[in-house]
Q: What sequence folds into this?
């Protein structure tokens, strides 16, 4: 069984401990050509315990995170996912030590672990569908919409640079800044520093000023016609929206 553990102390000297584990009480699931029990997170504080499914296990289980090479599937591994979990859990524990509770920990875990690229991709997919529908290419629009479940849309758009006439491609990219979430800029920035298959840009990472400054430099260099501040504001609006959504789930009307 893969596992990890760590502990921190609050002002009351209560210990926060955690581990990840493959939940063998549940049926095995498909994980990129293999069968495995789902990865879970177990957190204990003041003799109380919660456990829940790993966010990153859910994220990296998606079909688009696998490549086929020499007839074999290649994708994220459980140890790689555990490392991502450890980084996130340590971050959230440190952030919530003041007034720590298991409920607050889980709320912040679910918020800060979210991948900005994964969150903005569906909306960008809707944009692509509408764009090609409006251009009189409904079959292509539907193909992209369905195929996006199995391929990363950033890669699809990158191939379009070769397949489409330059004016049409440029229109697609430029219009996306007005009619779609900031997916292209976020994903393009992210892959500069990440290696396949662990492609994600979490809200936790976005908290780092160096990351945000690097993003601004990327937009300035790769999308010179765009207002960098406006693109940054698009991302910030998404974060505000996501936080409100989380609060609405917590306190339904």
A:
């Amino acid at each position: 069984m893969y596992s990890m553990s760590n502990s921190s102390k609050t002002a009351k000297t209560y210990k926060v401990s955690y581990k990840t584990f493959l939940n063998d009480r549940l049926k095995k699931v498909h994980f990129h050509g293999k069968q495995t029990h789902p990865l879970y997170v177990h957190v204990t504080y003041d003799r109380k315990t919660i456990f829940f499914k790993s966010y990153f296990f859910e994220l990296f289980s998606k079909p688009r995170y696998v490549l086929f090479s020499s007839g074999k599937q290649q994708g994220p591994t459980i140890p790689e996912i555990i490392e991502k979990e450890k980084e996130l859990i340590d971050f959230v524990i440190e952030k919530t030590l003041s007034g720590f509770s298991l409920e607050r920990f889980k709320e912040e875990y679910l918020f800060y672990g979210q991948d900005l690229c994964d969150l903005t991709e569906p909306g960008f997919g809707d944009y692509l569908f509408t764009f090609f529908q409006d251009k009189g290419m409904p079959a292509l629009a539907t193909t992209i919409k369905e195929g996006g479940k199995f391929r990363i849309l950033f890669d699809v758009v990158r191939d379009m640079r070769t397949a489409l006439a330059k004016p049409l491609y440029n229109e697609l990219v430029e219009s996306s800044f007005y009619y779609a979430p900031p997916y292209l800029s976020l994903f393009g920035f992210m892959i500069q520093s990440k290696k396949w298959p662990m492609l994600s840009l979490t809200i936790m990472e976005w908290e780092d000023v160096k990351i945000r400054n690097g993003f601004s430099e990327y937009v300035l260099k790769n999308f010179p016609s765009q207002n960098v501040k406006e693109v940054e504001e698009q991302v910030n609006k998404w974060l505000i929206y996501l936080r409100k959504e989380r609060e609405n789930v917590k306190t339904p009307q």
Q: What stands out?
A: The mean pLDDT is 88. The first strand starts at residue 6 and ends at 9. The two ends are 42 Å apart (CA to CA). Residues 6-112 form one domain.
